[in-house]
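Holo model, nicotinamide-adenine-dinucleotide. Inputs:
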Amino acid sequence: MSHILVTGGAGFIGANFVIDWLRQEGAAGIVNVDKLTYAGNRKSLAALEGDVRHVFLQADICDTAAVTALLEAYRPRAVLHFAAESHVDRSIVSPGDFVQTNVVGTFRLLETVLEYWQALDAPARAAFRFLHVSTDEVFGSLAPADPPFTEVSRYLPNSPYSASKAASDHMVRAYHHTYGLPVLTTNCSNNYGPLQFPEKLIPLMITNAMVGKPLPVYGDGLHVRDWLYVGDHCAALREVLASGQPGATYNIGGLNEKTNLEVVQALCDLLDEVSPKTAGSYRNQITFVKDRPGHDRRYAVDAGKLARELGWKPSETFESGLRKTVQWYMQNAEWVQDVLSGNYRNWVGKQYVA
Ligand code: NAD
Ligand code: DAU
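Output:
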């Protein structure tokens, strides 16, 4: 029972989690199951090539036989479920993919894990955990003066993405309530950091800025997100896995509300400092484009429960995290290039038509 099983560990947060986990002294091995959709990237895990503590299998979480075989072979003491379709804009164009992976996939995974868990001996059953990695978007949109989301905020998802994640949260909850599966659910705010696919706001803006492309801000740019450095999210997940109460949910947030325009301007100013253009500021590349349909105006997360009960708080400020992120993208031009030459290019072509 020394391994943990991770789904979606070739994606942005999953890969950061796997890498950070294996940096810990005496870390349990990781079995990593990822379908390698457009968002999955084996190169993100290149540093782990040859590391016997990391076992990678390309498989769909809907493939019950493949996941069962891994559970039987490695007997993990926990499953951390990151695998999902995660981009809101794509969910507007292709909602069916989101239902398939986020809803059906989570259901199939729960079925498979439940069968494995029920056959464990009593001590192993008591120690086992299923940690479901979810989002603050399930709570919908806040008005400017509303208090931040708490664990008891009402579910009011607005996009096909957030609705599919909400459905998966409900299934996870039901498997605890009905079958006793020891689940933990986390609802986190917007992550940023190394290895993020450049379809999401921050890496898109960095990669566009560096090649002189427009920086497309949706609508008036005054939508608010709460930004958390990915390493802080991964640290929170380790805390919840180690000490969370089975059946409980935990909000994870950066205490860091910013409008999109503030984020993009901060990025431009940082780039002006670390990689100045021959003439003018990166701010000149900002362009306002058509808004996202149904665009949620504001997210904000109250992570007080996690701080009070498990002692977690973010270690990066937005300024330090953004600096690390910009440096990472500048120092990893090959990773960026590899992504840009793939499916990403088609996506940009379709999304940002004039
Ligand atoms: P991502 O899109 O970067 O990665 C998703 C990974 O899941 C990819 O490697 C992909 O290949 C894999 N995957 C997709 N469908 C699969 C399937 N059917 N079977 C197996 N693997 C599959 O996503 P991310 O940003 O790393 O998000 C990870 C999780 O965290 C998601 O569940 C997301 O909802 C949640 N989350 C993300 C954020 C954020 O800001 N990115 C914030 C809060 C919560
Ligand atoms: O809140 C957590 C969620 O954060 C996660 O669950 C999602 O998986 C993750 O993708 C993210 O969702 P958002 O929709 O908030 O992230 P995104 O990076 O797509 O957009 C951030 C904000 O920036 C949002 O208000 C839309 C805006 N935006 C985005 C893009 C891609 C732009 O203005 N221009 C853009 O080109």
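Residues 344-348 have pLDDT under 50 and may be disordered. The chain has one domain: 3-195+226-257+294-317.
Archived with the compound record.
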